[in-house]
Amino acid sequence: MAFIDKMKEYLDKGVEVSKEALTKAGDVVQDLSDKGVTKIETHQLVSRQNKEYRALGQAVCQFFEDTPSGSLSAQDSSIAGIIAEIQRLDKEIAQREESLKSGGDKADSNNFAATEGAGTEGEKDSPEMEAATDAEFTKSE
Question: What gap in Å lies between CA 134 and CA 77, rounded to an integer?
Fold first, then answer.
């Protein structure tokens, strides 16, 4: 009977070690998944910020085309909202990057969903419009 007891003890230890290993592996997979989501969100925020920069450039150009000798400041109503959105996106991007450095935090990722689509343009551009805008932006660089 001693042999059977030793085998049972050995198998029980093996099962316990396997459970611990699977738990640790699950935690690692979850962490990598959270980091991946945060990286994707950061990229999306940077893309939205680039759209805002393009909108700012277009608004400034339009202003100076309409009033060549005019003066424009950051508080001007035609660009103040765009500048505020760029600053807000800056903060969100910094939060995501800090979250990645500190190990990723689910609360930050959930925050992104609430702010998705909160841009100054109000509507999402069609894929054709995005492609045309991206082509114009690339051509001007």
Answer: 26
CA distance 44 to 50: 10
Contact 73, 63 (CB under 8 A): no
Residue ranges, the chain, pLDDT below 70: 1, 104-141
Interatomic CA distance for residues 64 and 60, integer angstroms: 6
> In whole angstroms, what is the distance from residue 7 CA to residue 9 CA?
5
Token pair for residue 1?
């009977």
Segment 62-98, tens digit of pLDDT = 999 999 888 888 999 889 999 999 999 999 999 999 9
Tell me the whole-structure pTM to 2 decimals. 0.59
In terms of C-beta density within 10 A (0-12 exposed, 13-18 middle, 19 or more buried), how is residue 79 classed? buried
Tokens at 47, concatenated:
């893309």
